[in-house]
Amino acid sequence: MSCNYAEGLSPYEHKGILGVPEKFDSLEKFNEKCEILARLMCLSKHTVVHTGAGISTSAGIPDFRGPNGVWTLEKEGKRPSTNVSFADAQPTKTHMILKKLVDCNKVQYIVSQNIDGLHLKSGLSRKYLSELHGNMFIDECSLCKRQFVRSCPVETVGKKCSGVPCASSHNGGRPCRGRLYDGVLDWEHDLPENDLLMAEWHSSIADLSICLGTTLQIIPSGNLPLETVKYGGKLVICNLQPTKHDNKADLIINYYVDDILQKVMNILKIDIPVYNENDNLIKLAENSVIEWTIHKKDVLLLEKIFKAKCKGVKKKRTLIKIKRNCEELLLTNQENSKHIKLEIKEECL
């Protein structure tokens, strides 16, 4: 449960802005914006989706900073009334749509802040997923750093050792003397290196970043979508609350993410799959050892692509921005500033 996970974390006062009221676009604006989003996705050659706790609320897992979020209610001495266990929760419509969009090459990568394991349950391949804050259904070896899927949620959080020997030798690998520990980060932990590198590089080479169900308050994960903007790409934010980077977005949709993606799928004429338990690696892990490690070859390949596309581009964009700011010093209102920003982005393409 989200509550149990939150309670297992170390005490921490600076949890961000909590309980900001939600807002909804009118139906007319919602339809119009979904059309724009679908068009942006069709034009994009490399789309990255950034997901937060808001994509799992329809599965019965509460978010953290919403009006009924875990930490919002915690300040009032309350707990969420709905709190489905991680073991029982099933992927939402959003999870299944994202899996389909990856399968049909409309989305190239997903950067997740979620620890609930629903991307894993959906059948999404590790090749297309960074899990920046960990996963309740993953163990990691203290020595070889290989990751393995669990058949049940971890009982601890904060990268604590379970004492179980590394499973690498059971999966065709070399014997390892390491011990497994939970892969869920606490406040003080660094983000997993390969997950962070893949997330940063994909965000940098992306033509389009789409943020779903996150207020983007936690860093560095919340700042990764800005890498897309820095290199000339577009940013779309889909969330019910204002986010930290609304002023940098090209499109903001205030509506339920399930409804947004369902509408987009209808526009794109792509069928929405249903959850199939046979694709759930957590179920398969009951009878076999399943590895969940990012392959080194995928990291090296993406590094080459990143360097080929982005080397020197950020400096060029900075020079353009300085030049434009000097030339347009008198244009200080918000509309003109936005216009300048879009021109800068277009010149970098």
TrEMBL record:
Keywords: Metal-binding, NAD, Transferase, Zinc
Annotated residues for binding of Zn(2+): 141, 144, 152, 176
Annotated Deacetylase sirtuin-type domain residues: 27-271
Record GO cellular component, one term: nucleus
Enzyme Commission numbers on file: 2.3.1.286
A biological process term (GO) from this entry: negative regulation of transcription by RNA polymerase II
GO molecular function, a single term: metal ion binding
Signal peptide span: none
Keyword Ribosomal protein: no
The organism's place on the tree of life at top rank: Eukaryota
Catalytic residues identified in the record: 133 (proton acceptor)
Family of the protein in this entry: Belongs to the sirtuin family. Class IV subfamily.
Name of the molecule in the record: protein acetyllysine N-acetyltransferase
